Amino acid sequence: MKPPPFKYHDPRTVAETVELLARNENAKILAGGQSLMPMLNMRYVQPDHVIDINRVEGLSYIREAGGRLEIGAMTRQREIEYADLVARRAPIVREAILNVGHRQTRNRGTLGGSLSHLDPAAELPLVSAALEATVHVQGPKGKRDIAMAEFPAGYMSPSIELDEMVIGVTLPVWPDGHGYGFVEFSRRHGDFAIVAAAVLLDVEAGGKIKRASVTVGGVGPSPVRCRDAEKALTGEKGAEAAFRAAAETCRTIDAMEDVYAPAWYRQHLATVMTRRAMVAAFGRAANAR
Amino acid sequence: MGMKFIGARVPRLEDPALLTGRGRYVDDLHFPGMLHAAMVRSPHPHARVTSIDARQALAVPGVHLVMTYADLPAPAQQARIPMLVPNPSIKHPLMPYALAKDEVCYAGDGVAILVADSRYLAEDAAALVDVAYEVLPSAGDCREALKPGAPPTHAGIASNLAAQFTLAYGDVDGAFARAAKVVAASLWHHRGGGHAMECRAVIANWDPLQKQMILWSATQSPFLIRRSLTELLGWDEDNLRVIATPDVGGGFGPKTIFHPEEVLVPLCAERLGKPVKWVEDRRENFVATTQERDQYWDIEMAVDAAGKILGVRGAMIHDTGAYMPWGIISPYISSMTTPGPYVVPTYRLETRVAMTNKVGTTPVRGAGRPQAVFAMERLLDKAADALGMERAEIRRRNFIQPAQMPYNVGIISRDGKPVIYDSGDYPGCQEKAEAISDYAGFRARQKEARARGRYLGIGIANYVEATGLGPFEGATVRIGPSGRIFLLTGASPQGQGHKTALAQICAEKFGVGLEDVTVQLADTGIIASGVGTFASRIAVNAGSSVHLAAQDVRKKVIKVASHLLEAAEEDIEIDGGKVFVRGVPGMTKTLGDIARSVAGMPGFALPGGMEPGLEATQYFSPAQAAYCNGTAVAEVEVDIETGRIDVLRYAMGHDSGNLINPMIVDGQVHGAVVHGIGNALYEWMVYDADANPVSTTFAEYLLPTAAEVPRIAVTHQETPSPLNPLGVKGAGEGGTIPAAACIVAAIEDALAPFGVKVEDTPITPVKLLQLIRKAQANAA
Amino acid sequence: MKDMRKVSVTVNGKSYAREVETRLLLSDFIRHELELTGTHVGCEHGVCGACTILLEGRTARSCLMLAVQVDGANITTVEGIAPSEKELHPLQQAFMDNHGLQCGYCTPGMLTTLIEFLQDNPDPTEHEVRVAISGNLCRCTGYQGIVDAALDAAKRLQGGKRA
């Protein structure tokens, strides 16, 4: 289990990286390496060029601008986990990240890497979808923004060109006092989820749900926004029966299947995980009490 | 007085080096000019090899050799790899050739070995070896494989039935005819592996000075490797040295087996005249290292109205995979283990061993016993439920009592001798396990949890295990002129702390510290004979040998000292590495003085007609196995919405006779229990219907991590074995054996409101949720 | 043509310079180029944690990095944990006293992981310790001795700070 031979590049700027991507066929970007490296070691991928972006400047930051959170593509998961700003403004991201792998992998793994790899059960694409993030990419023709809803083109394939790279993400921030819940089912701590759910609730005084975001991962080929569940929750008062009914709408999501988890099980877990995330989110909303 | 070591929680001699990165495992060894090997393996479960073209691979600069069957020396072309433990009931004694001749019989079967300057290059070039396969039908499921018309797992065999045997005693059908209740179960205990953290590894180096082939292998049995190699290649034993030291990173059974790479790597080294290293990678470990456990049981139990067992009968199918390097040991052990600690007046188990196109099966920690205990304990649970009896109570009613020891079970062992339990207090052990698990308090805990919508359950299971199996192990104890004590043995550890435990036995005899004893192990060059570390046999066999050899040396020290100090032997005392005459201060010699006095001087006779040197070698050969036993209690919680199972508490009453180092024994139990938790809940070696391996990474085949397992409470009962001078029994596997049985019992107990019955392991959340839904549907 | 690069790195306070193929894994570089074989390789796909090292004080799986990526970096391996040849680090001593190791193969990864963890969380609960080492597989100990060692080491290290 040793990587196949390749030509290694370590550019210092995004422009240089994009140029390398444009110039070289069969190239792979090496970010945190927590997904690409196992695939290289197992020779599941055999790129002719590996473009290591760990020395590219200006891609690691967490900042607030215009009421939104901006996170650089090469920001390590650990930095997001320990960032006060994230804990205050987008606490669901921190909650999700505690489920991402293990401390050793979070030290290396990056936000941009996770989004680009786009594993259907990965936590960071899931919360990005839940928050309606905007993904910033750059190519030879310049920068462009892609709404997270449009970002997955299919199973593990982001809708970016071969000569484009993810450079950062902007996360809209929910109002102070919003409720959030991130619940996942995995076989072991740190494993990829079989199914995970992210729920955000804006609850107005009196306990009525004003706005809801319900998203599941691990069911479809990429994170699925559960619009029916969101509709069912909006205007409700956070009773167990309302959550149960809203969560039940997730049973009809078109689900993937493999030898470890059949489609019916993923659909069933989608109802359980979303309900539990709704309960957690509502419990945390300032106006619920 | 010197320190009393036996029975003490002594820190391990092994630890300082291992904690500071100074351990030495096979892959840590470097030799000048060393080359690196990679295997070319079959991607197909069953295929004819029609051609192999290595020209392109050989053309890669830095590639030195590609060896196929055609390149093997004549003896290895004529003979297959020897079966280590043959048995007359085996119909097809099928073993692989060192490399596939013209047929591959499992995905992972070796087709060629390639040697290059680096492992990186070897892997590049191995991909260029062009092997043409004609894919043949394959057998995946062992039950299907035995049916008429099933695809033959090997070309030219009439059926996939590898062996068939029946163990029986008493009028079992008569017992069933007069039973108050009969309970039956169809059970499946699934295949799993050893999964030592260090994969297998071999280095072969021809030493021109000594004219000796030296083989380093991450093995449990250096002596078995030497035997197999000499048998297969006709090499002289004296020209072959096999070393499993300094360190081996875990074994758990599969590293006992002589695998093909252990002949291929020395052949490459011989051919090239250079040291060659092969290190198995994790993916190879999943497809090419032997596994165990797949067994299907159809079994029933007859009980009287008071819950006394009248008989057990049934049939079992064991999946041996494509080859059977350890013969039928695992299924035979299974069929001997069923009666366990209970009085079972009549018994019959018909066993069929089926071949499939999967990697061969050989013992893995527990070795056939977890399956048998699963069968027996599940039947007892069913019988208790049928009679409305508490599950611990039915066990109490059936225990063999301490006064019945030694107890003849009625079974004839595979060596032709009756199975006789040497000692044990089974009711006492269960009582201790119940006490530390607060078994009595569980129903209150369960009720309280259920009021809050939580489903808790408890399970209990017992086992008896034959340990310390012969034929023998040996030890040499020698005191050098410096006074230092050297202990040499063929025992070969993979983390069990043999150095420490054996030094404890030895040091105590001379009143010295452990640091005064140098222990050398696992090397065919240091002692004439040895067997290996498996079947929980080292404490009994090597431990007793050390005890006897040290005792011999001690006697000689006293004899020589008596001569030198002109005192009666009974007045000589040994302590702190010195020899004294009782009551005469100042009359003292060091062990070094004594050793030098019998080392001899040219031209002078040894004093008093002594034999030279302070050295003794003893080979302890036990008359039969020492039977250890234990009781496990598991408490679980089931999430009925997801099927998730959490083991909340786990307790073990454990009796492995006298304890040499309780700290080490506790560690053995903890590790073995977690292996059992893995088998019960997580470890699932997935094959598709055609026997293609699917779960070939640690992300797919799930070993339990620290976050999935509970703290394990262990209490020891020490019932000495009368069969060896230390009174010890084996302790390496007991934790694994009852784990699946008690965890599954606990799951059923938690789900009693639904009447869920669990008949196979591992029980995954998906499978459990299916069972819950089925039970709910049936109820509705 | 082999793609080669020069790598300069400081490991356990000592500087090394080597020219290596760019595809060389950091784990192999440390073990076979620098001959620091205390770092072990158990899976080479980033699950078992045996190859964990400290890169600029942060744990990383060395089988998931290329040697070229650490050019100019500071690394600590298991060989660099003890304060001297004769002394063990309190965490190592706690492993010895609590039987936190058997075959020793997972031990280097456990030690490096716990060194970082105990800096992040000097007074952890048992559950926190179990989660912290859940990315490190051990087949021998059932984890109990390791968990006990970590909790014991936390006490020892805090005691040291107070003194």
Structure description:
- The complex is a heterotrimer of chains A (289), B (780) and C (163).
- With 289 residues, chain A is α+β, with helices and mostly antiparallel strands.
- Chain A has helices spanning 14-23, 36-41, 77-82, 84-89, 91-97, 103-108, 111-117, 123-130, 227-233, 240-248, 263-284; strands spanning 7-9, 27-30, 49-52, 62-65, 68-72, 134-139, 142-147, 152-154, 157-158, 165-172, 179-185, 195-204, 208-217, 224-225.
- Chain A is built from eleven helices and 14 strands.
- In chain A, strand 12 (195-204) and strand 13 form a beta hairpin.
- The longest helix of chain A has 22 residues, at 263-284.
- By secondary structure, chain B is α+β, with helices and mostly antiparallel strands.
- Chain B contains 20 helices and 29 strands.
- Chain C is of the alpha+beta class.
- Chain C has five helices and five strands, in the order E-E-H-E-E-E-H-H-H-H.
- The chains are: A alpha+beta (289), B alpha+beta (780), C alpha+beta (163).
- Chains in contact: A-B, A-C, B-C.
How would you describe this structure in keywords?
heterotrimer; A: 289 residues; alpha+beta; Uridine Diphospho-n-acetylenolpyruvylglucosamine Reductase, domain 3; Enolase-like, domain 1; 2 domains; 5-stranded antiparallel β-sheet; 4-stranded antiparallel β-sheet; 26% strand; globular; C: 163 residues; Ubiquitin-like (UB roll); DNA polymerase, domain 1; 5-stranded mixed β-sheet; 5 helices
Question: Would you summarize the structure shown here?
Answer:
By secondary structure, chain B is of the alpha+beta class. Helix content of chain B is about 30%, strand content about 25%.
What's the arrangement of secondary structure elements?
The complex is a heterotrimer of chains A (289), B (780) and C (163).
Chain A: E1 7-9, H1 14-23, E2 27-30, H2 36-41, E3 49-52, E4 62-65, E5 68-72, H3 77-82, H4 84-89, H5 91-97, H6 103-108, H7 111-117, H8 123-130, E6 134-139, E7 142-147, E8 152-154, E9 157-158, E10 165-172, E11 179-185, E12 195-204, E13 208-217, E14 224-225, H9 227-233, H10 240-248, H11 263-284
Chain B: H1 15-19, E1 35-41, E2 47-53, H2 55-58, E3 63-67, H3 74-78, E4 103-104, E5 110-116, H4 119-126, E6 130-135, H5 142-145, E7 161-169, H6 172-177, E8 181-189, E9 201-207, E10 212-217, H7 222-233, E11 240-243, H8 261-272, E12 276-279, H9 282-288, E13 295-303, E14 309-321, H10 329-337, E15 347-355, H11 369-387, H12 391-398, E16 407-412, E17 418-421, H13 426-437, H14 442-451, E18 455-467, E19 473-479, E20 485-489, H15 498-510, E21 517-521, H16 538-564, E22 572-575, E23 578-581, E24 584-590, H17 591-597, E25 614-620, E26 626-638, E27 645-655, H18 662-682, E28 712-716, H19 739-750, E29 760-761, H20 765-779
Parallel strand pairs in B: 1-12, 8-29, 10-11, 14-15, 20-21, 27-28
Antiparallel strand pairs in B: 1-5, 2-4, 2-6, 3-5, 7-15, 8-13, 9-10, 9-12, 13-14, 16-17, 18-26, 19-20, 19-25, 22-23, 23-24, 26-27
Helix pairs in contact in B: 10-11, 11-12, 11-19, 15-16, 16-17, 18-19
Chain C: E1 4-11, E2 14-21, H1 26-33, E3 52-55, E4 58-61, E5 74-76, H2 90-97, H3 107-120, H4 126-132, H5 144-162
Parallel strand pairs in C: 1-5
Antiparallel strand pairs in C: 1-2, 3-4, 3-5
Helix pairs in contact in C: 2-5
